[in-house]
Automatic annotation (TrEMBL):
Domain of life: Eukaryota
Keywords: Signal
Protein name per its UniProtKB record: Reverse transcriptase Ty1/copia-type domain-containing protein
Signal peptide (from-to): 1-29
Domain Reverse transcriptase Ty1/copia-type: 106-288
Length: 367
């Protein structure tokens, strides 16, 4: 591939990602458009039907804490301070964008998805319920009782027996617990990627990428995958999600007949269009005019461009090229008119689909 074509590939991908990042950053102050309350007081101010859904989610979460033995109610010992408690409410969606449930609470992934397409692997997912609550605390931690569910007087607090969401050590405790269980099942953690475990024994190959409580199992044999899920169920309360169709906000469609797998974020893109009131606008064919400078006003057509590309997908399939990986890289010279810095970019493909890409200004000013 010539340098010009490489530059087009890098530019097309990186500009689209840049658009999404800009819109996402701008949306952080507008989370209320998704109808997600920010506190228990906001929940109580909702209409009865909506309020009851969130209260049930909170009650279910509290019940999971009780069943897991996460805390015990004690008087706060003298000389100790109780940390605060804050409810975090969010909505979990199905692959079609409909609400799956109300919840109270990426390169390696793409590479594994590409491998699943090229080797025709099965993909199954499980969700660990209240994952962080499985981590075992070594420290003595006290916490105020949650708003809306207080028992006795404020002098009574929770002494945490296990980790809880929001604790600085919660992620580490959960990771150590999961690693211990997977090691018992014969899996080994990759030294280069601590969120991926592999199993290689007697011709059986399994790969498990983990993102907090979302666990995906990739392998040839469905029966072997099911045995892994059954063994995990002995240690954790989990929900068997079946064939992977939705992972980290990405919709996945696996076509075994064609040895291909496609990923897309149609619902995420549609949310952006609706959030900024562009639903009735006509889509545009390009994200900016040719020769336009990268300034804030040039991103105004972005939602219209996203509206016209709702069904765009990234597809992984066998490539006619003999190499498993193909990479492209390019750079300009002092291309930034404001800083005089050069731009470097690359695209790495596995089969027919990109698994990693970047385009950014170099740190030094060009000579």
């Amino acid at each position: 591939m010539d340098l010009g074509r490489c530059r087009e590939l890098v530019g097309a991908i990186s500009i689209f990602v840049l658009i999404l990042l800009v819109v996402e950053q701008a949306s952080k102050a507008n989370q209320e458009h998704f109808g997600e309350p920010r506190s228990m007081s906001e929940v109580m101010a909702l209409e009865p039907e909506e309020r009851n859904k969130w209260l049930k989610a909170a009650q279910d979460e509290l019940q999971s804490l009780v069943e897991n033995g996460t805390f015990e109610l004690v008087l706060l010992p003298s000389g100790h301070k109780a940390i605060g408690f804050r409810w975090v409410f969010w909505v979990k969606r199905n692959a079609d964008g409909s609400i799956e449930c109300y919840k109270c609470c990426l390169t390696s992934i793409r590479a594994i998805l590409a491998l699943a397409a090229l080797k025709d692997l099965e993909l199954e997912s499980v969700d660990i319920s209240s994952a962080y609550l499985n981590g075992e605390l070594k420290e003595e931690v006290y916490m105020c009782q949650p708003d809306g569910f207080e028992e006795k007087t404020p002098q009574w607090v929770w002494r945490l027996c296990k980790a809880l969401y929001g604790l600085k050590q919660a992620g580490r405790c959960w990771h150590e617990k999961l690693d211990k269980v997977l090691n018992q099942l014969g899996f080994e953690q990759l030294t280069c990627k601590h969120s991926v475990w592999v199993y290689l024994c007697d011709g059986v190959r399994l790969i498990i990428p983990v993102f907090v409580d979302d666990i995906t199992i990739a392998g040839k044999d469905k029966a072997v995958i099911q045995r892994v899920k059954d063994n995990l169920r002995k240690h954790f309360k989990l929900q068997d999600l079946g064939p992977t169709s939705w992972l980290l906000g990405v919709q996945i469609k696996h076509d075994h007949s064609k040895c291909s797998l496609s990923i897309s974020q149609r619902q995420y893109a549609l949310d952006i269009v609706k959030r900024y009131g562009f639903s009735n606008y006509d889509p545009v064919s390009t994200h900016m005019d040719p020769g336009a400078c990268l300034k804030p006003h040039t991103f105004l057509p972005a939602p219209c461009y996203i509206k016209g590309t709702l069904d765009y997908k990234l597809t992984y399939a066998p490539s006619p090229e003999p190499e498993l990986f193909t990479s492209f890289t390019d750079a300009d010279h002092a291309g930034c008119p404001n800083t005089g810095r050069s731009t470097s970019g690359y695209v790495i493909k596995m089969g027919t689909g990109a698994i990693s890409w970047s385009s950014c200004l170099q740190a030094l000013v060009a000579d």
